Amino acid sequence: MKFIEEFEKLISNYFNSPYGIAVDCCTHAIELCLRYTKPNFVTSPKHTYLSVPMTYEKLGIDYKFVDDNWTGYYKIEGTNIIDAATLWQKDSYVPGTFMCISFQYKKHLKLGRGGMILTDNKEAAYILSKMRYDGRTNNLPWAEQDIDTFGYHYYMTPETAEQGIIKFDEVKNIPAKIWSYKDYPDISKMSVFNAK
Predict the structure, then answer these.
(1) What is the mean pLDDT of residues 34-44?
(2) In angstroms, rounded to a whole number, what is the distance separating the alpha carbons of residues 102 and 109?
(3) In terms of Cα–Cα distance, which of 181, 188, 195, 168 is closest to 50?
């Protein structure tokens, strides 16, 4: 867990967030935040990645598509969750939010797979870190714990975290592409979202 904790500190410090919770992908970061906050209804930009509204479907959250001309990131309305999958900007954490970022191979810090939740909520950071790791805490073997939190198998591997630590210095000062809604098609027109 040493590499994971080191990587979490590195990224949270870069974004100026008190806490970082490394996960296996940004979609799972969003899912964990939705499970934690338990919204009944949210909105989804028409121009975003497929997995976001598919996660709403998976969790049984009512949603509607909206026009949102976002740049860099967007807020999932009805929550304090930000889909910042494409964002790479120093000191850009938005206080009071769960900001979810991606390390997928097309993103600025290319790890192939991985994501992180940034937050300033200490209690939420503790619970989300347990949720991502099968309900476990990091300090004991699981069989020696009384698991009290329902968890998911969404943790980042130490190997991925180590790779992130190594690659961070290569990209931290390189200007990042600024993504926007224009980089995505209108997914609200796709058959999968109109089959109801």
Answers:
(1) 97
(2) 8
(3) 188
In this prediction, residues 26-46 reach a mean pLDDT of 97
Contact indicator for 99, 117 with CB cutoff of 8 Å:
yes
Mean pLDDT of the chain: 94
Count of CA atoms in the C-beta half-sphere (13 A) of 15: 27
Of the CA atoms within 13 Å of residue 13, those in its CB half-sphere come to 9
Segments making up each domain of the chain, as ranges = 2-186
Distance CA(120)–CA(191), nearest Å, equals: 38
Residue 62 region by backbone torsions, left for phi larger than 0, else alpha for psi between -120 and 50, else beta:
beta
For the domain bounded by 2-186, which CATH number is listed?
A: 3.40.640.10
Confidence of residue 101 (pLDDT cuts 50, 70, 90): very high
Reduced to 3 states, what is the DSSP secondary structure of residue 110? coil
pLDDT, tens digit, 9 for 90 and up, residues 127-144:
999 999 887 787 777 777
> Residues for the chain: how many in total?
196
User: Which of 137, 107, 119 has its CA nearest to residue 30?
Assistant: 119
Q: What is the DSSP string of 130-170?
A: HHTBTT--TTS-GGGS---S---B-BPPHHHHHHHHHHHHH
